[in-house]
Amino acid sequence: MHLFFLISGIIILFLIAIEDFRFRAVSWWLFPLLFLILSAQIIYSIHWLNWLQILFVNLVFVVLQLLLVTCYFSLKFRRWTLITTELLGLGDILFLLCLGGAMATPFYVLFYIVSLVLSLVLVIILPFLKRNGIPLAGLQALFFIVLLLISFFKSYDLADETQLFRLFPASLFS
């Protein structure tokens, strides 16, 4: 059953990446489908009440981030600035919300930070990526595919936050 979720999730993530790179937009129906597949994968491994708690905390994290970014740019431009109209695409936000139900909060926060940094580095190195806007959801979809494959082949459970420590040598934490 786990392999079905993995393959389905990777296919949807590839579709999101392709559409975002090609059109700088993603079909809306891919987001609920991605949410259902990724959530089903994690619910398959943990109790659904634990999943609801993970989802809630991750969504609060994203909403707080978006509010802080909105406040920052509103202060910077000295006028109310909706980040979805000028700075960040709605697809980018929907993608982050979809991932909220896909992994435990420490994995989610780490993925969020690392994927933003890697996206920034790639846009700096490959300037053609920012033509007509940065395909953030597409880049993050590719990064998440890599994370899913690593977790599958290395037997990491993204729902188990204690397994985050298996990614790093013990000497980093002592």
Which spans of ≥5 residues are poorly predicted at pLDDT below 50? none
Question: DSSP strand (E) fraction?
Answer: under 5%
β-strand number: 0
Helical fraction? 55-70%
Ends: how far apart?
A: 38 Å
Structural features:
single chain; globular; 174 residues; 0% strand; 70% helix
Structural notes for this entry:
The protein is mainly alpha-helical. The chain has one domain (2-168). Helix content is 70%, strand content 0%.
Which SSEs are present, and which pair or pack?
Blueprint (H helix, E strand, L loop, with lengths): L1 H22 L6 H16 L2 H30 L5 H4 L3 H10 L5 H21 L10 H18 L21
Helix pairs in contact: 1-2, 1-7, 2-5, 5-7, 6-7
Summarize the structure.
The protein has 174 residues and is an all-alpha fold.
